[in-house]
Specification:
The protein is an alpha/beta fold. Helices cover about 35% and strands about 25% of the residues.
């Protein structure tokens, strides 16, 4: 008789965990607190527009990518249409200078040299290393000895580019390129190697945009899971993981009911899992240090606009300075990055456009005003007005064309996904975290595993799916069965 497994969380990590458990003949049920699958990989409709929170590109979109096989196993990639990117982002400064972070290393080199010929040595070294990354696919599983030798040209780049985007930009002598480089790549404190890999993937078509956006991706994995015989229950919020004699034996839900299982896997928020549902009883100094010291992706205010105008000739991502800085939470922003979603015609009616902005903010401020509904609603109204005014600096006639607006705060993220401090991707990929991989088990607790973005830095769909695959592989090893996968 197969063992019963409860998976907490129906995001990409939870759905993937469920799929791999079902492939290995476990009786598995996913418990999800929302009423739809996907977690942070989600979208919603408003007045005929689809506002997509998550997907910018899907690493593994090309059959040449090692990740493509994982997406095939999960039923996500089959029949999917993709569109390639020519560039990561555009950035403009106050003087009107423009820099395009092209995905193609040759075009990027030409663009950087156009602005900063005096930095030719640094530029040619940087773009040369990008070419190296573009020629080698980083494997998702441990490579063979021969594979390891082949990857040495790539692995030597990790220490070289472990420095942050801001630190690398500081080496650029030309002030125009120095400022625009950080503006275009946006994640200033992230290790540059992470963004270099993204550019390399984009240049080879291995990080393309899936038409339809986030929610169809999540629903595809849900369909795969159900087709494998798995079960998923929505509106089931966990309040406690039941432990008896240091063995996880089930969960208690917010409504007071209990569900028992032989094994519990939490693919939900790491902090909630460890410090709330398990009451912090199964930790050590290492785990305590992760949650006390490591940098997380900053919480966001996500603003989406449905606009009755055709933006197909406008850039897909533009970072530009503001004449009038805007206040979001306690922070002031002198520049915003505007995303134009016309790459996906399914998100808006014909001739119309979805625009969106992801603006870093401070969680404490939102938590403080969240207890006062009047203050909270007033602040959301302020954010809406401030963002519309900011976008109007670039597109002056846009106000009369806006048909729908939605504002999601860190508290929105908490309400729908439970993510600690409203963070949207867990640990940041920095010099100090890039080699971090938390164990999917906890000290002294048996029959329990974790999966998801809180086990390794970088987040995103690949991290969630690969974490799930590794966790189930370990689970199978501990249960003394051979881990197996299949493709629909």
């Amino acid at each position: 008789m197969s063992k019963r497994i409860i998976v907490i969380g129906g995001g990409i990590a939870g759905l993937s965990t469920g799929c791999y458990c079902a492939m290995n003949d476990f009786d598995v049920q996913i418990l999800e607190m929302h009423n739809i699958p996907g977690g942070l990989c989600t979208a919603w409709k408003k007045k005929g527009y689809t506002f997509d929170l998550c997907i910018h590109w899907l690493v593994g979109s090309s059959p040449r990518s090692s990740l493509h096989r994982v997406w095939e196993e999960l039923g996500l990639i089959q029949g999917r249409q993709f569109r390639n990117y020519d560039y990561f982002s555009r950035a403009i400064d106050k003087e009107g200078n423009e820099f395009v972070a092209y995905a193609n290393p040759d075009r990027l080199e030409e663009e950087m040299l156009r602005l900063a010929p005096e930095d030719s040595g640094l530029i040619r070294s940087f773009t040369g290393d990008l070419r190296t990354l573009s020629k080698h696919e980083v494997p998702f599983e441990s490579p063979s000895l021969l594979g390891l030798l082949r990857m040495l040209p790539v692995y030597r780049l990790f220490p070289k580019y472990s420095l942050s985007v801001r630190e690398f930009a500081g080496k650029i002598r030309n002030p125009v390129l120095r400022n625009l480089f950080t503006a275009a790549l946006q994640w200033h404190e992230m290790s540059l190697i992470f963004l270099m890999m993204t550019l390399a993937w984009m240049s080879t078509g291995a990080a393309s945009y899936p038409i339809g956006g986030s929610l169809p991706l999540a629903k595809s994995i849900e369909e795969r899971f159900l087709g494998l015989g798995g079960k998923i229950s929505y509106r089931k919020k966990v309040s406690e993981i039941i432990v008896e004699n240091d063995r996880a034996v089930g969960v208690r839900l917010a409504d007071g009911t209990e569900q028992r299982a032989d094994i519990v896997v939490s693919a939900a928020d790491g902090h909630s899992t460890i410090f709330e549902w398990l009451d912090g009883k199964y930790i050590d100094d290492e785990i305590r240090g992760y949650y006390g010291k490591l940098p997380v992706f900053p919480p966001l205010v996500f603003v989406a606009l449905g606009v009755a105008a055709d933006f197909t000739k406008e850039p897909t991502m533009t970072s530009f300075p503001l004449k009038n800085p805007i206040r979001i939470g306690k922070g002031e922003h002198e520049r915003i990055a505007l995303r134009n979603h016309t790459i996906d015609p399914t998100l808006a009616p014909a001739g119309k456009t979805v625009l969106s902005l992801m603006i870093p903010t401070d969680y404490d401020y939102w938590e403080e005003i969240g207890h006062d509904r009047e203050k909270y609603d007033a602040e959301k109204a302020h954010v809406e007005e401030a963002v519309v005014n900011a976008v109007a600096e670039r597109y002056p006639d846009i106000r009369s064309k806006i048909e729908a607006v939605d504002v999601a705060t860190p508290l929105t993220f908490m309400r729908y996904t439970g993510n600690w401090c409203g963070s949207y991707e867990g640990w940041q990929f920095t010099r100090d975290t890039m080699r971090l991989k938390m164990k999917p088990t906890l000290p002294s607790l048996s029959n329990f595993y974790m999966a998801g973005q809180w086990l390794a830095p970088g987040g995103g769909l690949p991290g969630a799916a690969l974490s799930a695959r590794r966790t189930v592989k370990l689970l199978c090893k501990n249960e003394k069965i051979r881990f197996k996968t299949n493709t629909p």
